[in-house]
Amino acid sequence: MIREFDRWAYDNRLRAWRAEWKLIVAFVMLAVVMMGGWREQWLVLIGMAYWIVARARVPFSVYGKAMLAASVFLGLSLLTLVVSVSVPFQITFIDSQLQPAAKLAVRSLAAWSCLFFLLITTPAPDLIAVLRRMRLPAALVELCFLMYRFIFLLEQAAAELMLALRARSGGTHWRHGGMLMYQLWMKTWQSYEAFSRSLAARGGVASAGHTHQREKAHVPLVDVAAGIIMALLLGWAWRKG
């Protein structure tokens, strides 16, 4: 899934937008979600879906996977609000917490849609270049780049270990999950030590080498009109709230 998201970050229709503009849009919408009511949150959720699926031309299946994954983690977290477990093992539902849990779910999904818009439409090297232009500390920028690189190494190592486990014993027992986590930790630590030794052997590097595609400043008129309409709808919802 991670590689699929990264591929669409390069192939989407909003690739021509400058990374700064998409960063501003994402964080402005995120601020609206955090400070606004349920009307604004639903408008942002629908608006982000429009920008991702209709304008960026990201397949709905990809958008659905991202929202489903967020919904699963969110649902597990919200169980602590609506379910109570007493000392003599007894499970009860708290009706009074259903409405706050529903509001929290909408707010969380709307916030995730803003961040996913930035993730699925902007390649990581472009975001790192924006951080550099913002004059952030070099150590922080390099840490972000190394984390981005480490995610793919971790995914590849996990896929290889799972394939090896299934080839040897089927990988269906719960103990195989523990074996996978332990071996993944060991392999990751070995990769980290090898990377550290390679840097030390070269005398270290001042910064990690990464390039980003030259950005274009052209924005279609349709996108400008859609942005204005969304801003007007948010202003109307804000007044109604």
Automatic annotation (TrEMBL):
Ranges that cross the membrane: 21-38, 44-60, 67-89, 109-131, 217-238
Key words of the record: Membrane, Transmembrane, Transmembrane helix
Keyword Transmembrane included in the entry's annotation: yes
A Pfam family annotated for this UniProt entry: CbiQ
BP-aspect Gene Ontology terms: cobalt ion transport
InterPro entries documented for this protein: ABC/ECF_trnsptr_transmembrane (IPR003339), Cobalt_transport_CbiQ (IPR052770)
Keyword Membrane (UniProt): yes
Descriptive protein name: Cobalt ABC transporter permease
Organism: Geobacillus stearothermophilus
